[in-house]
TrEMBL record, chain A:
Transmembrane segments: 12-30, 73-94, 106-127, 154-178, 199-225, 264-285
Chain ranges of the ABC transmembrane type-1 domain: 69-281
Entry annotated with the keyword Cell inner membrane: yes
Matches recorded under Gene3D superfamilies: MetI-like
Gene Ontology BP terms: transmembrane transport
Protein name (Swiss-Prot/TrEMBL): sn-glycerol-3-phosphate transport system permease protein UgpA
From TrEMBL, chain B:
InterPro entries membership: MetI-like, MetI-like_sf
Subcellular location: Cell inner membrane; Cell membrane
Transmembrane stretches, start-end: 7-31, 82-106, 113-134, 146-167, 188-211, 246-267
Known role: Part of the ABC transporter complex UgpBAEC involved in sn-glycerol-3-phosphate (G3P) import. Probably responsible for the translocation of the substrate across the membrane.
The protein, known as: sn-glycerol-3-phosphate transport system permease protein UgpE
Length: 292, 282
């Protein structure tokens, strides 16, 4: 694009709203978090003192923080892998069928529109130990289900609720990826006598790897940042610390624990993580453009 | 289809149907639960088939009060959600259109810097900078207001990128022709650029509407006044009633009502939704 308009002042006017909102609600708070991270504030917010890197040192010597990191990693990878596996299976099946493809798609993608908090509440009740149908069924099968007390079960629950919502997204992208696989390749393999199963693992799955990698990054970002509602509406990080992810911990330490310095230090660490993920995502997308 | 394998076709349909059933399970349960009186839940388990109290519950929740400590009816919170969702959607689209227009069709100093500043918003989701953003909004006296609900969320790198991409694909000859014919920047924007970006705007609208409607943490923090409660966040307030007093039928009906508008948008505008989803990730 080389043809442009000559006005000099107008572009600034056009950019002004976006830049103002960004400055006031993004850059200013980010700067505040950076600053806050180096101060210790008293519980009433009346005075604060400069403490240097103490908040960060405290954070990185706190076993709870490492535990929360592990929880986050476990949670995110579980959501990503479970969600992608189920979606891939469904997408492969939907790619095969001729009749009713669109109807299947419609009936599979709507959970994308459900707010994470609502997804959490629905599964929370399905699994409720005293009245949830699934919990009662599990009990009769000999599993003692109680996510109010059992941390692992609480984790399983938030993973299921978060995955449920994300299957639709993965499904759409896998289906698009599958439809882009050249038919001629599959026909050739089939003439050579390769079974559908073999064709999938030796031809289709490798060809899907750009989609798979892209979805892995997107799912990890989703599990990191967008599942706040699922956790807040259900376990609130508990029982104990078992579902306290990094993003939830920032909120909890800041708003519930009122440890503003510590919360700000965590914010700064998280900004670093998001930055890294964004860069990975963009490097990958650049590569995808080259290949296509 | 490469070859005819009837059994595999049967397996495919069966798997898909099972998938659909699993995906629909929670909503089915919620629907059934909302048709029973609150007293049905204390005695042991959620009933598995529809009861006859459905109409009553839905009517009370929708028109009178949501229950569980919230005195405003659902339709009122729906209006709040609608205001917030549309405010965010239109706000994002408007300011992104303008800034993409400036970045693509004008040359000015610090153009790249501006682009990077907008890009940085991608790295700062609200969940990450939650405490300081709350303080900023409190300082600006925007707690419990529609402005406070929408304005902090309308900066959007994704939308700006999308429109930038879309504008870059417009041939230079078109711009030249417009200029020769005497069209200034405004004329060009309204008469050529906007009509050409119509589908992109519509697709983005669907995605952003869902995003806006489903906001949870932000409204939860900045609204303490019933008059500004949005539907999705009200669920959390409803659940914080002491255990014995929770009216599950009302919560289920509210939950279903809260997911209805965005789900209807996805199903009704499936094509645009899929396009928006794919575009937004490019």
């Amino acid at each position: 694009m080389t043809v442009t308009f000559p006005q000099k002042g107008l572009p600034w006017l056009l950019l002004l709203p976006q830049l103002l909102v960004t400055a006031i609600f993004f850059l200013w708070p980010a700067e505040q978090a950076l600053e806050q991270a180096f101060y210790q504030e008293d519980a009433f917010g009346l005075s604060r003192e400069f403490v240097g890197f103490e908040n960060f040192i405290e954070l990185f010597t706190d076993p709870l923080y490492y535990q929360s990191m592990l929880t986050t990693l476990f949670f995110s990878f579980s959501v990503a892998i479970l969600g992608m596996s189920v979606a891939l299976l469904l997408a492969v099946m939907a790619d095969r069928v001729i009749r009713g493809k669109l109807a299947y798609q419609t009936l599979l993608i709507w959970p994308y529109a459900v707010a994470p908090a609502l997804a959490g509440v629905l599964w929370w009740i399905l699994f409720d130990p005293s009245m949830g149908p699934i919990a009662l069924w599990l009990e009769s099968a000999g599993v003692d289900w109680n996510h109010y007390l059992n941390g692992n079960q609480a984790m399983i629950l938030v993973v299921i609720a978060s995955t449920w919502k994300q299957i639709s997204y993965n499904f759409l992208f896998f289906l698009a990826g599958l439809q882009a696989v050249p038919r001629s390749l599959i026909e050739a393999a089939s003439i050579d006598g390769a079974s559908p199963f073999k064709r999938f693992w030796t031809i289709v799955f490798p060809l899907l790897s750009p989609t798979t990698f892209f979805l892995l990054v997107v799912n990890l970002v989703y599990a990191f940042f967008e599942t706040f509602g699922v956790i807040d509406a259900t376990t609130k990080g508990g029982p104990g610390q078992s579902t306290n992810t990094l993003v939830y911990k920032v909120f909890e330490d800041g708003f519930v624990g009122l440890d503003l310095g510590g919360s700000a230090a965590q914010s700064v660490v998280l900004m670093g993580i998001v930055g890294l993920m964004t860069v990975i995502q963009f490097r990958f997308i650049e590569r995808k453009v080259q290949y296509s | 289809m490469i070859e005819n394998r009837p059994w595999l076709t049967v397996v495919s349909h069966a798997t898909l149907l099972l998938g659909i059933a699993l995906v629909a399970l929670p909503v089915w349960m919620a629907l059934v639960a909302s048709t029973h009186p609150a007293s049905a839940f204390g005695v042991g388990h959620i009933p598995l088939w529809f009861g006859d109290a459905g109409l009553d519950t839905w009517k009370t929740v929708l028109l009178e009060k949501a229950g569980n400590g919230i005195d405003t009816p659902v339709f009122f919170m729906m209006l709040n959600s609608l205001v917030m969702a549309l405010g965010i959607t239109f706000g994002k689209i408007a300011i992104s259109l303008l800034s993409a227009y400036a970045i693509v069709f004008f040359r000015f100093p610090f153009r790249n810097l501006c682009f990077w500043i907008i890009f940085m918003t991608l790295m700062l989701p609200v969940e990450v900078r939650i405490v300081p953003t709350y303080e900023v909004v409190a300082n600006l006296d925007l707690l419990n207001s529609y402005t406070g609900l929408t304005l902090p969320l309308i900066a959007s790198a994704t939308a700006t990128f999308l429109f930038r991409q879309c504008f870059l694909s417009i041939p230079g000859e078109l711009v030249e022709a417009a200029r020769i014919d005497g069209a200034g920047p405004f004329r060009f924007f309204f008469d050529i650029l906007l009509p050409l970006s119509r589908t992109n705007i519509a697709a983005l609208f669907v995605i952003l509407f869902i995003y806006g409607w489903n906001q949870y943490l932000w409204p939860l923090l900045i609204t303490t006044d019933d008059a500004y409660y949005t539907l999705v966040m009200s669920i959390k307030r409803m659940l914080s009633v002491t255990d014995g007093d929770i009216a599950w039928n009302q919560i289920m009906a509210t939950t279903l009502l809260a997911m209805l508008p965005p789900v209807a948008v996805v199903i009704g505008m499936q094509k645009l939704f899929v396009k928006g989803l794919v575009d937004a990730e490019k």
